[in-house]
Each structure stands twice: as structure tokens, then as C-alpha cells.
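Researcher: I've got a protein sequence and the SMILES for adenosine-5'-triphosphate. Could you write out the 3D structure of the bound complex as C-alpha cells? I'd like something to compare against our soaking experiments later this week.
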Amino acid sequence: MSEVPSLSAGGSPGAVPGSGEPVIDVRNLVKRFGDKTVVDHVTMRVAKGEISGFLGPNGSGKTTTIRCMCGLLRADGGEGRVLGHDIRTEAWKIKRETGYMTQRFSFYEDLSIRENLQFVARLYGLQPAAVTETLADLGLTSRQNQLAGTLSGGWKQRLALAACIMHKPQLLLLDEPTAGVDPKARRDFWDEIHHLAADGLTVLVSTHYMDEAERCHRINYISYGKLVASGTVAEVLASAGLTTWILEGANLGAIARELAGMPGVDQIAPFGVTLHVVGRDAAALERSVRQMAKSHGVTAEKGETSLEDVFIQFMAESTDNMGNGNMANGSPAGGGA
Ligand SMILES: Nc1ncnc2c1ncn2[C@@H]1O[C@H](COP(=O)(O)OP(=O)(O)OP(=O)(O)O)[C@@H](O)[C@H]1O
Ligand SMILES: [Mg+2]
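Model: Sure. Here is the predicted complex with adenosine-5'-triphosphate in place.
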């Protein structure tokens, strides 16, 4: 079963007081496990109706931050409001008005879709009609009698979404909701998220997929517990200040080896028959790239910097800043991210 915050009967959604007030407004959130600071002074705002992406390497603190925001974990420091409620003293109110799709959600596999939703509906004290309505809203009616254990990944995701929106929350926290789901099912899922947001639901969604990051109104990037970038995709791309060159021709493997360590070269990545070379020092990078292109007789053209390039750069910079001995999480940046 999807991990459901404890609820009081009724689960009536509350309005955000004052128009324009952010739904999530937390400042300097800190969470420690033992002597490890896994959320390190995170300040984040998410406006009503916004889809805000939460990105960062494995172990960077996304899930922990989400759990602090919805009142499932008590932060060790910081303050703020979620849905207008104080995260330190009114966690129960936040839980009542929030839908939380956990990173590793599960169902009763030997119950049908409808039976799983009926179970959740009873937890929330909802009327049986809520199940029928949710089944219809999410296109699950025709499969309502199928056992949850026999569903494919995409349908399981849809059932999980149904389970966490059935009580009509004001805020949806989605923790890697589409991991391992095929592109069509992910696209359908995101269409649904946009429909919900258009109706006023606010969404904070963690993901490792770049295409999903691009479907968010804003993104937040966290590394070793610290928020290192926040803004629209265009703003985050621009603020990274990276330049990208694309080389095409023969011997790209040898060129990549030679380029490594040359002035201005921060990243080298083969993409099919091309080589993407990325750096912060535009002038030095151009000199290195042109020199290599000339000596190997390949073409070099300026390309678009991608969000992935930016995030790889963030990871490298964070690793440099933290040093191996000082890492907040004790795991390498990007390990399996
Ligand atoms: N209950 C806990 N007790 C001790 N350490 C924990 C606990 N929960 C998380 N951690 C540690 O906190 C750090 C942040 O974990 P968290 O799950 O928040 O990262 P994440 O960004 O969600 O990672 P992923 O992308 O892999 O889901 C990790 O080093 C993790 O091992
Ligand atoms: Mg996580």
C-alpha cells in the first residue's frame, strides 16, 4: 500500500490563506541522522498550482526533505509553512491535506485495483463514491477488478497516483513516481500531473529523468543536502554558465582521451556518432576544441547545453567542494543516479 499519512476522518482540503501565498515555504531546513547532516539549510518555495521538480544524486536528501515537509519527519532545524501550516507544530494538518506517493510504494497484490482503493478510502474516512469517481478520473474503471499484483509498471503507477489523490489533497508530493516506467506511460502520467496542476493542485516531484525535469515549471537541485540551484529550466541552464561544443568525425575515442585535461574542458561525453565537450571557461574550451578538430580533421560546432550537462557539472563541483573526507552522505555523488 502506498504510504499514507495519518489522517483524520473527512480529510477536507483546506485553502491556502491569502492569495499568492506559497504552498511550500520552508527556510533553512536541517535534518541530521546521527552525525550526518543530510538536509543542510534547505530553503524552498513552491507556489500554488506549480509543478516543482526536485533533482539531485542518489543520497542527496530529496526523500528526507520531502518527509520533513509533509510532517512525517521532524526537522532538527529550520522553519516554515506548508499549506499555511507550521511544519513544526501543525504536521497533522499538513498530512491531512497532502497526498504523498512514496519512492517505493506498494499495494496489496492479492486485492483488485478497486479493493486497494476501497482500503485507502476507509483510511481517509471517504464515502464509497470517492472510489468510483477516482477510478473514472484516472481511467482505471475498466481494470478495476484486476489484481494489483498482475498490473504492469505503468498501471501500478496510476493506481498509486489514484490512492494519493483520492482524498483531494491540496499538495501532491511525488517521490520518483515514474522510476522504471516506459516512456509512453511516463508521458501519460505527466499529462495527468499537468491536468491536476491546472486545477490548482501543487506538486513537488523528485525525479532522475531530465525530460521530466523539463516538464516542471521550476526545478530545485540538491547536492549533499544543500540546495545548489533553483529556478525555471532556462534560468538554471543560464546560471550554470556552460558552453557546449559538438565534435563529429572519425577517431572520436582518441580525441576524447586527448581532450581530457586540456584547458577549459570539464566534461566529455560520447553521444552516438558525436562527442559533446562542455566547459565553464568558454574561451579556453574553444581553443582546445578547435585545436583538436584541426589536428584530427573533424568538425566542431557549438551546441546547446543540456540540463544533464548542468547537473553533471553540479555533481563534480559538489564533490570538489566537499572532498572525500567531508561528504555529508558518505556516498559518491552520482553513484547510480
Ligand atoms: N532513517 C535514516 N537513518 C539514517 N540515515 C538515513 C535515513 N534516511 C536516509 N538516510 C540517509 O540520508 C541521506 C539522504 O537520503 P535520501 O533518501 O533523503 O536521499 P535521496 O536524495 O532521496 O536519494 P535517492 O535519489 O537515492 O532516492 C542518505 O545518505 C541516506 O543514507
Ligand atoms: Mg529518495
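Model: Residues 1-19, 324-337 have pLDDT under 50 and may be disordered. The chain is about 35% helix and 25% strand.
Researcher: Great, I'll pass this along to the crystallography team.
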